[in-house]
Q: What sequence folds into this?
């Protein structure tokens, strides 16, 4: 089924919304990472032992994992945004070409009398 200008715009709008949701999720993960690091810093001031060092190192490792997740989500969002824009542009161009062909751009048809 051929796409209409409305359906092209709606598809692009929906794709942008989902891209923004991915970016928002990445930001939420980064906020949680910051909270984890803040907690780690507080603990490191008051908790001194061998087990504390191991625990604090594990917290640091987990904060790095959270950052990697956030970065990966942003990368996915950027790629999805690029694909959505390219698809939108291609669909609009195809629609414009189809309109040109249907409004006098072709040989006209009709046959000999």
A:
């Amino acid at each position: 089924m051929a796409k209409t200008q409305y359906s092209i715009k709606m598809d692009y709008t929906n794709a942008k919304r989902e891209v923004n949701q991915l970016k928002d999720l990445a930001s939420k993960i980064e906020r949680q990472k910051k909270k984890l690091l803040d907690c780690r810093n507080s603990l490191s001031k008051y908790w001194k032992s061998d087990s504390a060092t191991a625990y604090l190192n594990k917290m640091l490792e987990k904060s790095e994992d959270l950052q990697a997740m956030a970065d990966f989500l942003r990368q996915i969002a950027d790629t999805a945004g690029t694909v959505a824009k390219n698809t939108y542009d291609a669909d609009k161009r195809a629609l414009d070409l189809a309109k040109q062909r249907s409004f006098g751009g072709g040989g006209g048809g009709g046959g000999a009398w």
